[in-house]
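Anyone? Bumping this.
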Amino acid sequence: MDNLRILATNDDGILADGLQQLVEELSQIASVLVAAPDRERSATGHAITMFQPLRAKATEVPGAEAAYAISGTPADCVKLAVDMLFPKQIDLIVSGINRGANLGTDVLYSGTVSAALEGVMLGLPAIAFSLAEVAAPDFKPVASLARNLIETMWQKTWPADTLLNINVPQVSEDLKGIKVTTLGHIRYNNPILEREDPWGGTYYWLAGQVPENNHVEPSDVWAINNGYVSLTPIQFDLTDYRLLDTITSWKLQLPKNGGR
Amino acid sequence: MDNLRILATNDDGILADGLQQLVEELSQIASVLVAAPDRERSATGHAITMFQPLRAKATEVPGAEAAYAISGTPADCVKLAVDMLFPKQIDLIVSGINRGANLGTDVLYSGTVSAALEGVMLGLPAIAFSLAEVAAPDFKPVASLARNLIETMWQKTWPADTLLNINVPQVSEDLKGIKVTTLGHIRYNNPILEREDPWGGTYYWLAGQVPENNHVEPSDVWAINNGYVSLTPIQFDLTDYRLLDTITSWKLQLPKNGGR
């Protein structure tokens, strides 16, 4: 594994404990390069920065051979790292360890997962790690587990267009094992909070609770709720192949004026 | 169609010509409600706003029965509209008309597509329209075509968890017809531009050109390059089902210390 070169990134920002613990641990099995947002960029989804230039500030992260703090989104960081900062120097992208789970349909909102998915779109294998604990996350044992899993999985072969999305329950529980899962469909209860400002104006918070007990095996939400590490293979082709024949059978035509 | 209630949204902002033309045209066949970003939010992907409150300012859009300019992303707008501003008043979400194409893997970066996809995730049918022309877009004929297609497609049945992503070539060309397509994999040439500021600092632009002639039927990129309207069914489950058995066969185990 000594020749393995890993790009580490995240969406909680380059100073986040989850990234720093991950880099220190992975530096024991690989050369680690870092390109991460210069501040927290959670819930940015797959946003990219097209209308402002990006800056990349060289900095130090303990264990990393080189590190840049970047004024952009997680997807920006990976684009910049792969194509400009570390060209042809990356074997594997590892995103995380995120503070909080990235499960089910919520992965579409996740900067952590989007950074890894951007790597996969650029042709590099990628793994995302998230710790399903926000209040008092302890990243050190999760970083150790991440290293162990990477050491094992790097001996296997999987398609370069597949991302491995790994969530770990909070470490205060006994882990029951590792489940290979599918993405659950998360629908929030009470998704919007309405409040009034001191001047009588209305404002809203996106919030909501995840309903419990409506996820079943092999969903990733079920796995985490039941004390398992969840591993979901993820791909980036959103085409709904089930519908191609149906829609073709509609025989849609342009209006007679050709759409003018 | 008189009882049809459409939510119109976009990512170019509530003042964008593409949205305004769409609303005027659709108001002839439906009741139109609008919830759109208060400014341009292109390339925001599926970002949501979790760490700032959202404001919704009532405003007027010609043809709309009600309209709100929202201080958030396109996905925020749809969440707020469906769950708070217009609860149980929406039959169909129409996002667009975007200034510029939303094709292939680029749909992951697209606010236009993400708004529609958010609707689908909330259980509502949704259609996204984009005009593959940035410099001098003429939205009026595209809005007319959108109305015509919606009138036809609303008579059909398709799964509520499928989004219809429609791209239209620039209107200066003769349209050849409508193709049902898959999402192409877009890899940019020269994706990063490096420049120097007046003080000797380096900055970067995400840019790049889409290589021509490496897309073939039934890709959406091919369809647009060849003068067709492209219609791609899109779903939101990123699970890579092809890999579930392979990864399960790896029989991954927790390290003996349980990951601690």
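Late reply, but here is one note on the structure posted above: The longest strand of chain B covers residues 92-99.
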